Amino acid sequence: MFSKILIANRGEIALRILRACRELGIKTVAVHSTADEDAMHVRLADEAVCIGPPASRDSYLNVAAILSAATITGAEAIHPGYGFLSENADFAETVEAHGLTFIGPTAEHIRMMGDKITAKTTMQMLGVPLVPGSDGELTSLEEAREVADKVGYPVLIKAAAGGGGRGMKVAQTADDLEDAWKMARAEARAAFGNDAVYLEKYMDRPRHIELQILGDNYGNVVHFGERDCSLQRRHQKLLEEAGSPALTAEQRDAIGQTATQALSKMGYRNAGTLEFLYQDGQFCFIEMNTRLQVEHPVTEMVCDVDLVREQIRLAAGEQLGYTQKDISFSGHAIECRINAEDPDNFTPCPGTVAVYHPPGGLGVRVDSALYTGYRVPPFYDSMIAKLIVHAPTREQAIARMQRALDEFVVEGIKTVIPLHRRILEDPEFQKGDYTIHWLEQFTAKPH
């Protein structure tokens, strides 16, 4: 086991990793920008190193500074968390080249799954079902028209690189295709420096279902069930559930077996998440995240497993030590992402937290690095906390989340807590009757 780990991230995920390290008896190194000098993970780490000014490109994306910090502090491994460098294959490769351990998958698998066209081709070869569409990158508008005519409108033009909803445009009819093609390529070029795009059939009422997996260095792969991440705005998740109210245990087992068999054949190691669109009883693979997910706590709550601890164990060369039959699912969990945003128009609202009082009680968990007096900087993602609840049934979990949201006090800045209250009160949500398009329609309604 490692004696010291450098945490190449910030905010609640840095604190989350730090806590797992503490429980394993591992010393921690926090890196931080000048804007994060007073951050909680910096205060609690055994050592802290400033790696640059506030801009991410000069600090949390500064590979040379991070590696220097690891070297001077004697860290043996680097945990990237999520975001920033977590899915950067070159970074993973460089970490290993410097004699350190990258706590995550191999650079080869990060690179393979980072290109969505390669990821889809690989998964198709391994027997994982796909959304109907082009076999690979589209080389021309004419080819896009041919594929669209074959799969039927509406269709979705998607960037091969990147994510977060950028480089994605819908063509409802053949008349819309040229504009969607041009806009998707231009947006992809601007965002990722790569204008390669492909085409998929646009599913009109799917759910976003993802499957959490872990693999060790010895070919063993297991899954920890599904998360329903359908409540999104602009392709950004806001609320997640485990398990999905749309799936049965038999459907979970079937897609889980398909996924674990595929990843075992790949020799995949450490944590990963396969993302699917699910409609009319059919799963269609869309992409894989080769890292820890923001919403991993809902899986932890229903499976009683510390996924970060498992990541560290596996990176240290340990075997899983259990099989699929050893993993059980208990109750229901819901996570609400608490963003420092206006709840009506989602404008970011950085500033000083005048009062911070997190909720508590049975089955309530808050992952956050906030404290009273903390200044939320304007330079990074607006998520400031994750509120997670667990209960024996979905109905009880909803009631517990409503109670916890009512207890949650964050004053001095605006947050999306009022929006979450509205969502939890909605009859359609309470019935579990929603798709990936539901939230944007819901937020467009007057209230």
From TrEMBL:
Domain ATP-grasp: 120-316
Pfam families: Biotin_carb_C, Biotin_carb_N, CPSase_L_D2
Domain of life assignment: Bacteria
Pathways per UniProt: Lipid metabolism; malonyl-CoA biosynthesis; malonyl-CoA from acetyl-CoA: step 1/1
Residues covered by the Biotin carboxylation domain: 1-444
Record SUPFAM superfamilies: Glutathione synthetase ATP-binding domain-like (SSF56059), PreATP-grasp domain (SSF52440), Rudiment single hybrid motif (SSF51246)
Keywords of the record: ATP-binding, Biotin, Fatty acid biosynthesis, Fatty acid metabolism, Ligase, Lipid biosynthesis, Lipid metabolism, Magnesium, Metal-binding, Nucleotide-binding
Matches recorded under InterPro entries: ACC_Biotin_Carboxylase, Acetyl_CoA_COase_biotin_COase, ATP-grasp, ATP_grasp_subdomain_1, BC-like_N, Biotin_carboxylation_dom, Biotin_COase_C, CPAse_ATP-bd
The reaction(s) this protein catalyses: N(6)-biotinyl-L-lysyl-[protein] + hydrogencarbonate + ATP = N(6)-carboxybiotinyl-L-lysyl-[protein] + ADP + phosphate + H(+)
GO molecular function, one term: acetyl-CoA carboxylase activity
PROSITE patterns given in the database record: ATP_GRASP, BC, CPSASE_1, CPSASE_2
EC code: 6.3.4.14
Subunit structure, as described in the record: Acetyl-CoA carboxylase is a heterohexamer of biotin carboxyl carrier protein, biotin carboxylase and the two subunits of carboxyl transferase in a 2:2 complex.
Main function: This protein is a component of the acetyl coenzyme A carboxylase complex; first, biotin carboxylase catalyzes the carboxylation of the carrier protein and then the transcarboxylase transfers the carboxyl group to form malonyl-CoA.
Matching NCBIfam families: accC, PRK08591.1
PANTHER family the record matches: BIOTIN CARBOXYLASE, CHLOROPLASTIC (PTHR48095:SF2), PYRUVATE CARBOXYLASE SUBUNIT A (PTHR48095)
Protein's name according to its UniProt entry: Biotin carboxylase
